[in-house]
Design brief:
266 residues, alpha/beta, TIM Barrel, eight-stranded parallel β-barrel, binds 3-methyl-2-oxobutanoic acid
């Protein structure tokens, strides 16, 4: 995709039957690499908590963390659409709080859209933001900010009742004005049904092949995740190994006096 990607580009891609590629990023160099490679959407996810800040989940991530990382990503991006996650409890206390925080993410963080986890219960907040000119991406299915409520990272929408509720939530979010919808960790059939029922694009993560696009968390994608990685996450590179090998070589060369060599000194 050449040129600047906007929310209208993303929506047209669905109409044209073109798949959408999205990845997360949290800092300047990664954002630059993803942007130059031509990714359509960069999400500054609250997954920054586990990928870059060493937390066990996304709950401790604050607005200050998000603004800091959004600014770094923004500086690295020319063409990709930059979306920033509204972190835990930054939009559920009151409409005023939600609007204030979304404004900070757009104005200070430099993102072009915000993402919020939730179903029908966040419809009024979405409507207010969209009316005020802030594009919103929805997120249904497994919503990691509710990990304590959900009792762990589990596949959602497994029985008919749960799948119907997900479809209903997705339709309500579309009617409220979200420009795209992340669907996380649901059976492939559920992802496909929701995608077929919506005009807006769906971006799946563990939601099967029927979605309009796919997103992966950069740490899983690059092999930088410590501990358990979800089954749906494909590792496209093993940076843990590459970086580890480089550091071991450096240590050896320093100890043995091979670095600096002839070319690496003044
Ligand atoms: O924070 C994040 O990385 C996300 C993705 C899982 C979509 O919300």
């Amino acid at each position: 995709m050449a040129g600047k990607i906007r929310i209208t580009t993303i929506q047209k891609m669905k109409q044209d039957g073109q798949k959408i590629a999205m990845l997360t990023a949290y800092d300047y160099p990664m954002a630059r690499i993803l942007d130059m490679a031509g990714i359509e959407i960069i999400l500054v996810g609250d997954s920054v908590g586990s990928v870059a800040l060493g937390y066990g989940n996304t709950v401790p991530v604050t607005m200050a963390d998000m603004i800091h990382h959004c600014q770094a990503v923004r500086r690295g991006v020319t063409n990709s659409l930059v979306v920033g996650d509204m972190p835990f409890m930054s939009y559920k206390i009151s409409q005023k709080q939600a609007m204030t925080n979304a404004t900070r993410l757009v104005q200070r963080g430099g993102v072009e859209a915000v993402k919020m986890e939730g179903g029908g219960e966040i419809v009024p907040i979405i409507q207010t933001m969209v009316q005020a000119g802030i594009p919103v991406m929805g997120h249904v299915g497994l919503t990691p900010q509710s990990i304590h409520q959900l009792g762990g990272y589990r596949i959602q929408g497994r029985d008919d009742e749960a799948a119907t509720k997900l479809l209903n939530d997705a339709q309500r979010l579309e009617a409220a004005g979200v420009f795209a919808l992340v669907i996380e960790a649901v059976p492939e059939e559920v992802g496909k049904t929701i995608t077929g029922a919506l005009r807006i694009p769906t971006i799946g993560i563990g939601a099967g092949r029927g979605c309009d696009g796919q997103v992966l968390v950069l740490g899983d994608f690059l092999g930088l995740t410590f501990g358990k990685v979800p089954r749906f996450a494909k590792k496209y590179a093993d940076l843990q190994q590459i970086i580890g090998n480089a550091v071991e070589q450096y240590i050896r060369e320093v100890r043995e006096g091979h670095f600096p060599d002839e070319t690496h000194h003044y």
